[in-house]
Amino acid sequence: MKKRTSLKDIATRVGVSTALVSYVLNNQKEDRISKEVAARIKAVAKELNYRTNQIAKGLKTSKTFTIGLIVADISNSFSASLARIIEDEADKNGYTVLFGSSDENDIKLRKLAHEMINRGVDGLILAPTENAIELLLELKETEVPFVLLDRYFPQFRSSYVALDNFQAGYMATEHAIESGGKRIGMINFRSTHFHLEERTRGWLSALREHKIPGGKKQLRLVREHHLESEVQKTVNSLLSQQEPVDTLLLASNMIAIHALRYIIEKRLKVPKDIAIIVIDETEAFEFFYAPLTFIRQPLQEMGQTATRILLDNISHNKAVSQVNLSPELVVKKSSLHHYSSPLKR
Amino acid sequence: MKKRTSLKDIATRVGVSTALVSYVLNNQKEDRISKEVAARIKAVAKELNYRTNQIAKGLKTSKTFTIGLIVADISNSFSASLARIIEDEADKNGYTVLFGSSDENDIKLRKLAHEMINRGVDGLILAPTENAIELLLELKETEVPFVLLDRYFPQFRSSYVALDNFQAGYMATEHAIESGGKRIGMINFRSTHFHLEERTRGWLSALREHKIPGGKKQLRLVREHHLESEVQKTVNSLLSQQEPVDTLLLASNMIAIHALRYIIEKRLKVPKDIAIIVIDETEAFEFFYAPLTFIRQPLQEMGQTATRILLDNISHNKAVSQVNLSPELVVKKSSLHHYSSPLKR
Q1: Rounded CA gap, A239 and A87, in Å?
Q2: Distance (Å, rounded) from C-alpha A273 to C-alpha A255?
Q3: Across the interface, do B84 and A65 touch by the CB < 8 Å criterion?
Q4: Is B279 in contact with B251 (CB distance < 8 Å)?
Q5: Does residue B213 have a cis bond before it (omega within 30 degrees)?
Q6: How far is B284 from chain A (nearest CA, A)?
Q7: Does residue A180 or residue B21 have the better pLDDT?
Q8: What span, in angstroms and rounded, lies between the C-alpha atoms of B247 and B214?
Q9: Would you say the C-alpha torsion B181, B185, B187, B193 has a positive or negative sign?
Q10: Contact flag A87-B94 (C-beta cutoff 8 Å)
Q11: Distance (Å, rounded) from C-alpha B160 to C-alpha B169?
């Protein structure tokens, strides 16, 4: 087997320190060093086929029994719970998990994926950011197995485990209609993420099938980086318009947390003034005075399935597995307009 | 510089595959391979000074601009929030963070620390498990800089950033007394962790100084792996004894979550039937019908300070920094026995 190109080989050829090569190739900010040097290091690395060696050949000859997991935001309970489940499942199989958190940032995601691969993980589980396609194409070339988690790109063929998000939106909305909702608004993120768009599509589809008026006029989109103020503004606008909504479908647990704070502040009565249904959950929901109705994502199944597919891919099977898990509706008080009626409890 | 010993060098000497050497040295379960082979690999690795080379020499010559973070339980919001803060602070300084979660398991902690060091992290931030001293002694020998987070061992000299936990227990108890508490019980983990013992010591010290009777008779210890049932049992025992407690000091956010569930189930009135104060917090507390009084840990400061100390240690300074951060009392309704009185609000 041909000797692998090392950082030192590149450093010697360029005439710089190994540390500098590592710095440049690990995609660090380059403002501290000259552009010419950075370009030269990258050119030599390419010429010596640095990455291909490290990754494609390196991994096949020596497993490290380590997998990388890149979540969207480790401070969100959704990501943190999944991380714990994947860690437990990997541990059962003798694998250690190294985590990273992209914070929904394409550059961080790329950096983390490169760091992990250069450190020899046997495979990756990742929740891709909005513009991750290019990175995923690169990953395919490296032949490091990977499984997408929670999100995927319908136009990009790869293994993934995700919720059936259309079904989640549809199911939540149908429940709202059955509970007596006549004007059902939705708040979602302003995002091109397919999984979020699917939730909106499910909502809209249920409204249409049940001939509930309003449609997209009752949809509000908020930006993640202005979440608190935009959730307040949009809840307020949906409630104070000429025909206020009587039900709010909230597309994520973080949108819900901010909406609840606003509802408490404004002393609105749930579900009398406004019924609430959330897609996804968080520990806080059960402690709200009207415990929240929500769509449960099967986290245990999601994390375990993703881990198993990845470990299968690592050890033998190169099959592409695409799994859409069914959402579960958990009905509590917040969605029941007439919750004093025994029939509705 | 002497060439580093590689896994391949060891494999060649022992006459096994590189993968097998990696498997053994990364502390994987060894039940699949013979004990003799495993022992031989370890002996040769020691003889060739494998670890020392990889770590002590490797790191000094080529920084990777990566740090490792090992938290206690990534699914706990305390760990997850700290991870996010450390990630942000490291990113500002051009560093990537690889996380791991020990789940309070000594063996997992050791495995993660080894994985990270063998993958060339420049330093480690870690929340040590109960019996981590031996590992910490090893880490000192490797000369990889590390900073302890949240927990430390008073008898072991190293950099750390933690809460002043005695003060936290004391402050919470003093507030309970000032709010009219006469019988103040405490629920803590059954653990030898110094930071948890300090919380109990602070509680006891405040009781004694204010001549509140009861003392250790009002202390209950619960096991982490039986948390739900033991919290229920202990809340019940403190409330149903001949002289029931009127205030509960809960030593962690997870103890509080289970106590609140039980309190809701039993339809107890907070604070009328029982006042509640918690050390540490979680998002759920603000949504409970009587928002919880709690001791806030300065997470931002904790994560940022730990990161800065580590990066200082990596780049030049070998000083030992020990930081005890001040707790902050956040008073809400749950602790105010007479909360309808305007003076108390």
Answers
A1: 43
A2: 19
A3: no
A4: yes
A5: no
A6: 4
A7: A180
A8: 12
A9: positive
A10: no
A11: 20
Domains and CATH numbers, chain A: 1-48 (1.10.260.40), 165-297+329-344 (3.40.50.2300)
Q: What is the pLDDT of residue A16?
A: 77
Candidates B63, B73, B111; nearest CB to A96: B111
Cβ contacts of A57 on chain B, cutoff 8 Å: none
Q: What single-letter amino acid sits at A183?
A: R
Task: Write the CB contacts of B3 (distance below 8 Å, at least 6 apart in sequence).
Answer: none
Run of H or E residues at B287: none
Taking the CA of residue B214 and the nearest CA in chain A, the distance in Å comes to: 31
Give the helix ranges, DSSP H, for B210-298: 227-240, 253-265
Cβ distance A64 to B108 less than 8 Å, yes or no, reads no
In chain B, where do the E strands start and end? 66-71, 96-101, 123-126, 146-149, 160-163, 184-189, 219-222, 247-250, 275-279, 293-296, 322-325, 328-330
Tell me the H-state helices in A210-324: 227-240, 253-265, 299-315
Q: For chains A and B, what is the number of CB pairs under 8 angstroms?
A: 153
Q: At what angle do helices B194-209 and B165-178 cross, to 10 degrees?
A: 30
Spatial separation of the C-alpha atoms in residues B10 and A61, rounded to whole Å: 15
Q: How is residue A201 written in tokens? A: 């599509």
First to last CA, chain B: 69
- Pick from A217, A261, A223, A264: nearest CA to A237: A217
Residue spans of alpha helices (H) in A58-188: 58-61, 77-92, 106-118, 133-142, 165-178
CB contact under 8 A, B283 and A284: yes
Summarize pLDDT for A277-335 with one digit per residue, the tens.
Answer: 999 999 999 999 999 999 999 999 999 999 999 999 998 877 899 999 999 999 999 99
ipTM above 0.85 for this complex:
no
What are the C-alpha distances in Å from B152 to residues A162, B3, B77, B126, B306?
40, 36, 20, 10, 13
* Kind of pairing between the strands at A146-149 and A160-163: parallel
CA pair distance A115, A210, nearest whole angstrom: 50
Beta strand ranges found along chain A (DSSP E): 66-71, 96-101, 123-126, 146-149, 160-163, 184-189, 219-222, 247-250, 275-279, 293-296, 322-325, 328-330
